[in-house]
Amino acid sequence: MDILKTAIDWTKAEMLSSSFFILFGATFLLASYGFWHLGKTDVARAYVIPASVAGGLLLIIGVGIFVQSYGRVTGFAQAYEADASAFLATEMQRAETVLRQYAIAVFRVIPMIVAACAVVLVFVDGPQWRGALVTTIAMMSVILPIGSNANARLQVYQSALEQATSAQDTD
Question: How many CB atoms lie within 10 A of CB 170?
Answer without folding.
Answer: 5
